[in-house]
Write a structure and sequence with these properties.
The complex is a heterotrimer of chains A (about 100), B (about 270) and C (about 110). With about 100 residues, chain A is mainly alpha-helical. Chain A is built from four helices and two strands, in the order βαβααα. The chains are: A mainly alpha (about 100), B alpha+beta (about 270), C mainly alpha (about 110). Chains in contact: A-B, A-C, B-C. Chains A and B meet through strand 1, helix 1, strand 2, helix 2 and helix 3 of A and helix 1, strand 5, strand 6, helix 2 and helix 7 of B.
Chain lengths: ~100, ~270, ~110
C-alpha cells in the first residue's frame, strides 16, 4: 500500500452540528436568554440533520442567499422574529426573577 | 476605556432586542470582517477594553425550529461568522449556539454585552491566551470489519479450533457451532477495539494539548468507527500528529478521517 | 409457500414489520439456544435438532423476503428499531433531551 499523506477534510454539517450546538462557551447569567438547559435540537431533528446530504458551506448558503434577496429590503424585523405574547410574558418573569 | 459600537440599528425598544453573540476576540484596531450572520443579519463588534464580542441584533428570543433545513442554515451561518472572526484575529473564543444577551429596563442588550465583557474581562483574556496558537481537529478512525475479523479469526486459538470442528459436524450442530463462532468473533473484535482505542488515544494525546472523546457514529457500510476525538493542537506540533495519523491510516484495515483546522469550539 | 398477499398491507409496509419481528424473535431464540448449548444442559442430539430447526426458520424467512421483495423494508424496520433503542438509552443518560421531543416551533421556515 502506497504511503499517502493524510488529507485534511473541510468540516461538513455533521462535523459542525455537535460543535456549534453543544460545545462552545456557555454563559449562565440573567442577561442571557436561555432555554434553561434544554438543548435546542430534539432527537428527531438531530437525526434528520445528521441524515442530510453533506452540505458544503456554499451549497447551503446559496439557497438561503436567494431567499433573503427576494425579501423586502428595509424591513426592520424579518418574519419569524416577532415576539409572541407568550414569550413577552416569560421574558418579563425572567427579568424580574433572580 | 474605549468602547465602540457599530450598530446599524438605532433607537430600538431595549426590551425587544437582543444581541446574538457568536464569539469573543482580542480586538485591537482591526475592522470587523464583512460577513453576514444568521438569517442575513449584519454582524458587528461590541468592543470594550481590548476585547470584542462579535454579534448581530435579534429579537430577544432563542432560535428554534422543527425545520431541519432552516436549522442547518443557522448552524452553517454561525460557523461562518466564527470562522471569519478566527481568520481575522487568529484567536477566537466561540460561544455556543443561541447565546443571546437581552436588554432589561435600564440597559440595552448592547450595554449588557459590554458590561459582560467588562465583568468577565480577566477570565476571557485568560481563555483567549490559552487558546493562542492552537487549533481544533476532529479525528475519526475506522476499521474495515471484515479485514479485522479475519485477523481475529486467524490469531484466536479458540476460534481456530471451532472452525476445524465445524467441518466435521452434521448440519444442525454445524449451524449452532457457527453461531458460537460468531459470538466469539464478536467478543474478539470488541476486545481488539478496546485495545486499539487505548493505543490510539495515547498516541494522539502525546502530540496534542488536549483531547476530548466524542460519541462514535454508526451506520457506515463495512467499516466501523473506532475512535471519534476532538483535539486541540498547537500549530507547531501538527506535523507530529499528522505523522502518527499517517501511520494509522497506512495500517491494513484502518482508515483515518481528519477534519480541520477548526476554531476551538470543543475546548472553551 | 403460498401467501395471500393483500396489496394494501404491502403498501403499508406491514409485512415488512411482521417479518422484521419474526426475524428478531428468531435471533433471540438463536441466542438462547447457543447459551443453553454452552451451558452444557443439552445433549448433542438436542443441539442438532435445535440447529436444524433454526436453520429451517432462517431460510424460510429469507425465502419470504425475497419472494415478496421486502428485504430492504425489513432492514429499514430493524435499523429504525435499533435507532429507537439508542435514543432511549441516550434519553436515560441525558434526560434533558426528552423535553425537546414535543416542543412547537417558534420560528417558521
Amino acid at each position: 500500500m502506497a504511503m499517502e499523506p493524510m488529507a485534511r477534510h473541510r468540516a461538513t454539517l455533521v462535523d459542525l452540528l455537535d460543535r456549534v450546538l453543544d460545545h462552545g462557551v456557555i454563559i449562565n447569567a440573567d442577561i442571557i436568554i436561555t432555554l434553561a438547559g434544554v438543548p435546542l435540537v430534539g432527537i428527531n431533528l438531530r437525526a434528520a440533520l445528521a441524515g442530510m446530504d453533506t452540505m458544503t458551506k456554499y451549497g447551503v448558503m446559496s439557497d438561503w442567499d436567494e431567499r433573503i434577496r427576494a425579501e423586502e429590503s428595509g424591513s426592520e424585523v424579518l418574519p419569524g422574529h416577532q415576539l409572541t405574547a407568550q414569550h413577552a410574558v416569560s421574558l418579563a418573569t425572567a427579568t424580574t426573577a433572580r | 476605556m474605549e468602547t465602540q459600537v457599530q450598530s446599524p440599528i438605532e433607537g430600538r425598544d431595549t426590551k425587544t432586542t437582543g444581541c446574538y453573540v457568536y464569539c469573543v476576540v482580542p480586538y485591537a484596531y482591526e475592522v470587523c470582517p464583512d460577513v453576514t450572520g444568521i438569517e442575513g443579519c449584519r454582524v458587528y463588534a461590541i468592543v470594550h477594553r481590548g476585547l470584542g464580542a462579535i454579534v448581530h441584533d435579534c429579537a430577544a428570543q432563542p432560535y428554534r425550529s422543527e425545520d431541519a433545513h432552516l436549522v442547518a442554515s443557522w448552524v452553517m451561518a454561525h460557523h461562518r461568522v466564527v470562522e471569519a472572526a478566527w481568520e481575522r484575529w487568529g484567536t477566537v473564543l466561540p460561544l455556543t449556539f443561541n447565546t443571546i444577551v437581552k436588554g432589561a429596563d435600564e440597559r440595552s442588550a448592547v450595554e449588557n454585552t459590554r458590561m459582560w465583557l467588562d465583568v468577565e474581562h480577566e477570565w476571557l483574556r485568560a481563555r483567549l491566551s490559552s487558546l493562542t496558537g492552537k487549533v481544533e481537529y476532529g479525528i475519526q478512525v475506522f476499521w474495515d470489519t471484515e479485514t479485522i475479523a479475519r485477523t481475529v479469526a486467524v490469531t484466536n486459538s479458540e476460534v481456530r479450533k471451532l472452525q476445524e470442528e465445524i467441518e466435521s459436524k452434521p448440519r444442525g450442530l454445524a449451524y449452532m457451532y457457527r453461531q458460537k463462532l460468531e459470538n466469539l468473533l464478536r467478543k474478539g473484535l470488541e476486545a481488539r477495539a478496546a485495545e486499539e482505542f487505548k493505543d490510539l488515544y495515547a498516541r494522539i494525546s502525546r502530540c496534542t494539548a488536549n483531547v476530548r472523546a466524542e460519541k462514535v457514529k454508526n451506520g457506515e457500510l463495512g467499516r466501523q468507527m473506532l475512535v471519534n476525538l476532538s483535539c486541540l493542537v498547537c500549530q507547531d506540533r501538527f506535523p507530529d500528529l499528522q505523522a502518527e495519523l499517517d501511520q494509522v491510516n497506512n495500517t491494513e484495515g484502518f482508515s483515518v478521517r481528519l477534519v480541520g483546522p477548526l476554531p476551538p469550539y470543543s475546548f472553551c | 409457500m403460498i401467501l395471500d398477499v393483500n396489496e394494501g398491507d404491502l403498501k403499508n409496509g406491514v409485512l415488512g414489520l411482521v417479518v422484521a419481528l419474526v426475524e428478531i424473535v428468531k435471533d433471540v431464540l438463536q441466542l438462547q439456544a447457543v447459551k443453553r448449548m454452552e451451558g452444557g444442559s443439552l445433549t448433542e442430539q438436542e443441539v442438532e435438532r435445535l440447529g436444524e430447526a433454526l436453520m429451517d426458520l432462517e431460510s424460510a424467512i429469507d425465502k419470504i423476503k425475497v419472494e415478496i421483495g421486502i428485504t430492504e423494508s425489513v432492514k429499514a424496520v430493524r435499523d429504525g428499531l435499533d435507532r429507537a433503542v439508542d435514543d432511549v438509552i441516550e434519553g436515560i443518560l441525558n434526560p434533558g433531551v426528552w423535553e425537546m421531543a414535543g416542543m412547537p416551533s417558534s420560528r417558521g421556515g
